[in-house]
Design a protein that fits this description.
Helix content: over 70%
Order of helices and strands: HHH
Number of helices: 3
Distance between the termini: 16 Å
Number of domains: 1
Strand content: under 5%
Structural class: mainly alpha
Amino acid sequence: MTDKEIHKVNVERANHFRLLQTNINFQALVLDHYFNGYVLELHNQLSEYTRNSEQYNEVLRKLDAISITKSYFLGLKETGRWSEEELHFLMINPNGDIDD
């Protein structure tokens, strides 16, 4: 893939995520409950278990998974924003090189 094609894919993915964010079901289930309410539930569960116990570590794994998912979504937004800027640069300077 060329740089331009990669940037277009990044922008498309970011746009898909933007659309998801406008969906009230996604907002309620993922953005509100999964990223906030469920995290609080899991955090409260930690106090119920002995540190380094199997149950405690399972809760930590769930918290890690949520963190990874949230980072993925934030990365989509940031990469999409950056790729939009790079595509704009390429439109202005069609023969220009993209600096990394």
